[in-house]
Design goal:
It is a single chain. By secondary structure, this protein is α/β, with parallel strands linked by helices. The chain has a single domain, classed as NAD(P)-binding Rossmann-like Domain (Rossmann fold). The strands form 2 sheets. It has a 7-stranded parallel sheet with strand order 3-2-1-4-5-6-9, with helices on both faces. Helix 1 crosses helix 6, helix 3 packs parallel to helix 4 and helix 6 crosses helix 7. It is globular and about 45 Å long.
Length: 216
């Protein structure tokens, strides 16, 4: 049996927390390296947590695959420039460092509507990151484009998002009428889809909410 070494950036986020738990529970994963700006509360025999400055990454230990779950909002970041530094700059820096450390495959938490040519700043940054990652020499890249993400943000110390509350309520009422790719999706379902697809990925694949929900 071949055991894998996983790298995860963004383990303190909504999807990142689920990715971390899933990777640690995977019997085929020997080690999980995490990169974050603050220490993690969790402890585990497989876990090797690294507190880093994403603007000045040091060389990484050897890894087989990398998961990118770094993200913020313009409101939390404080400006479009600060938002781009995280959602584009930090994710791309980790991807390049992981590639140099031997990673063959990559999984990305992007967003529905990601488009490098979009007039919407948020969607444009997400799309530009997808294109930048596709230009790197990974054997496989899996991009998750979830619709409205739902999950327990309070336990993560994240601010409650009013739009998510409204979206989730509307989704429940009009569930039958909403196309599968537009329905709210649990962060855990996104994480499971990536953890399933990335280890054997070849080329580039995009996962939308409908497919991720069905797989979960």
């Amino acid at each position: 049996m071949t055991y894998r070494t996983v790298l995860l950036a963004g383990a303190t986020g909504l999807v990142g927390k689920q990715l971390l738990e899933g990777a640690l529970a995977d019997r085929n994963v020997a080690t999980v390296h995490t990169l974050s700006r603050r220490d993690l509360a969790i402890r585990h025999p497989k876990l090797s947590a690294h507190v880093v400055d994403f603007a000045k990454l040091s060389p990484l230990p050897p890894v087989d695959e990398v998961y990118l779950a770094l993200g913020t909002t313009i409101k939390v970041a404080g400006s479009q420039q600060a938002f781009r530094a995280i959602d584009f700059g930090a994710n791309l820096a980790v991807a390049k460092a992981a590639l140099a450390a031997g990673a063959k495959r990559l999984g990305l938490v992007s967003a529905m509507g990601a488009d490098a040519h979009s007039k919407v700043f948020y969607s444009r940054v997400k799309g530009e990151l997808e294109e930048a990652l596709a230009a790197l020499s990974f054997e496989g890249v899996v991009i998750a484009r979830p619709s409205l993400l739902v999950g327990d943000r309070e336990s993560l110390g994240q601010p409650h998002r009013f739009g998510e509350t409204i979206g989730e309520a509307v989704g429940k009422v009009f569930n039958v009428l909403i196309p599968p790719n537009y329905k709210p999706i649990q962060a855990a379902a996104v994480a499971r889809a990536l953890l399933t697809a990335v280890p054997s990925a070849k080329g580039r694949a995009v996962l939308l909410s409908g497919a991720m929900r069905s797989a979960a």
